[in-house]
From TrEMBL:
It is a lipid-anchor. Part of the outer membrane protein assembly complex, which is involved in assembly and insertion of beta-barrel proteins into the outer membrane. This is Outer membrane protein assembly factor BamE. The gene is omlA. Part of the Bam complex. InterPro entries: BamE, BamE-like, BamE_dom. Signal peptide: none annotated. It comes from the Bacteria. The keyword Membrane applies. It comes from Halovibrio variabilis. It is found in: Cell outer membrane. GO terms for molecular function: protein-macromolecule adaptor activity. Residues 111-152 are annotated as: Disordered. Keywords: Cell outer membrane, Lipoprotein, Membrane, Palmitate, Signal.
């Protein structure tokens, strides 16, 4: 009986240590597509040219291959320990290339929390990740009027 208990204990221990879902795994948020915010969409107005729309929104993720009058801006955020958030803006242009219609899908009222902009990734345990950053130079640059001039 004691040998059976040892075998079961060893089997359970190996299962937990082998990488099953009982042990935590590092996950990252995965943003994909064009970043689309409410501020960007609020700048769009019917009658804008395609160049003006590109200036505000950037190049579209999807253009209809046979009809360039519809542009789709899709943003998808797969949160590591949460849900998937998707935003989509579909812009339709008239034959003269002017913005005619704006359609939105998704929740644009909630702010997007993209941690990748401020974090530098996972660090080893016990190490401050900010210590790994290169230090900025504290020396002040010499103005051009005070730099030494070499004479031929």
């Amino acid at each position: 009986m004691q040998k059976l208990t040892q075998i079961i204990t060893l089997s359970v221990a190996l299962t937990v240590v082998s990488g099953c879902s009982y042990v935590g795994v590092y996950k990252r948020d995965i943003p994909q597509g064009n970043l689309v915010t409410q501020e960007m969409v609020s700048q769009l107005e019917p009658g804008m040219s395609q160049e003006q729309v590109t200036y505000v929104m950037g190049k579209p993720l999807l253009e209809a291959p046979f009809d360039a009058s519809q542009w789709d801006y899709v943003f998808r955020l797969d949160q590591a320990y949460g849900d998937v958030e998707q935003r989509r803006v579909t812009l339709t242009f008239d034959p003269q290339g002017r913005l005619a219609n704006i359609e939105q899908e998704g929740d644009f009222s909630a702010p997007l929390l993209l941690d990748g902009e401020s974090s530098i990734g996972p660090a080893a345990e016990g190490i401050d990740p900010l210590d790994a950053l290169p230090e900025e130079s504290t020396q002040t640059p010499i103005p051009p009027s005070e730099q030494p001039v070499s004479q031929p």
